[in-house]
Amino acid sequence: MDTNVLISNTLYMLGIICIICLIVGIFVLFVKLKKAKSEKQEFEEKYNSLEIKVNGLKLETLESKLNPHLFKNILNSIQSHAYQTYHALDKLANVLDYILYESQKKFVSPSEEIEFALNLIEINKIKISPLFELKVKTKIKEGELLYEQPILAPMISIDLIENAFKHADLKSSDAFISIVFEFKESCFYLTVSNKISDHKILKKDRSGLGSDTLEQRLKIIYNNNFKLDKFVEDDVYIAHLKIDLLEYKAQMLASGR
């Protein structure tokens, strides 16, 4: 009987010890998990901070390349068509004001960007024959609150427009360039299409900079709030850009930016 009691007491003590060890083990594991979670959160915060800084540096680099590139193209166009210098210089003055002042801002209003793009188109018109079909349309829905608010990245429209004038078939009888600006339901739309030239274009140094710059800027600034489609249909190159500014603004407000 004493032996049974002794065994029972021993088992009881062993059970208590196992339970205590289990509780201690769970507590130690909980502390380690909490510490790991805290370290992970701290790491993510540092990573996000570094990512923001890197993206900021990328954006500064891209924009510093973009302005001289555009300016050089404009001057070359005017120089090669001296007979239209007065008209071109008038438009160039507006474009330069935008580049020197508005483009230094983080954001401009869609209204300002479209006005800038229309001036840019007028300058590019000196490259083409008066018989060339150039269609430019603006479709702005009335009462759009974001249309006059600074929420659009400056000079976001120039790459698609410049590429159309650069690659269009200016000699073909059915050649054309179509540029359509739209602003509806707080979204900015730009659709540019042109007949593709059969003539091979000589590659220049730094060619393709604008195209790469545009996509990088869109990804850095608007993340998933944009869509850029480029495709060819029957020898017509079409580029369509959509930026959801309302969704982007909502995310900015939510993040406290």
List the helices and strands and how they pair.
Elements: H1 2-79, H2 85-100, H3 110-124, E1 133-140, H4 158-167, E2 176-184, E3 187-195, H5 209-222, E4 226-233, E5 236-244, H6 245-255
Parallel strand pairs: 1-2
Antiparallel strand pairs: 2-3, 3-5, 4-5
Helix pairs in contact: 1-2, 1-5, 2-3, 3-4
Q: Overview of this structure, please?
A:
The chain is of the alpha+beta class and 257 residues long. The protein contains six helices and five strands. It has helices spanning 2-79, 85-100, 110-124, 158-167, 209-222, 245-255; strands spanning 133-140, 176-184, 187-195, 226-233, 236-244. Helix 1 (2-79) runs antiparallel to helix 2 (85-100) and helix 3 packs parallel to helix 4 (158-167).
What's the main sheet like?
5 strands, mixed
Shape: elongated
Q: Helical percent range?
A: 55-70%
**Secondary-structure element string:** HHHEHEEHEEH
Radius of gyration: 30 Å
| Beta-strand percent range | 15-25%
**Could you name the ranges where pLDDT drops below 50 across 5 or more consecutive residues?**
200-210
Strand elements, count: 5
Distance between the termini: 78 Å
Q: How would you classify the helix and strand content by structural class? A: alpha+beta
- Look at the structure and give the mean pLDDT: 80
Q: Strand order of the main beta sheet, please?
A: 1-2-3-5-4
Number of discrete helical segments: 6
Keywords:
257 residues, alpha+beta, 5-stranded mixed beta sheet
Structure at a glance:
The protein is of the alpha+beta class.
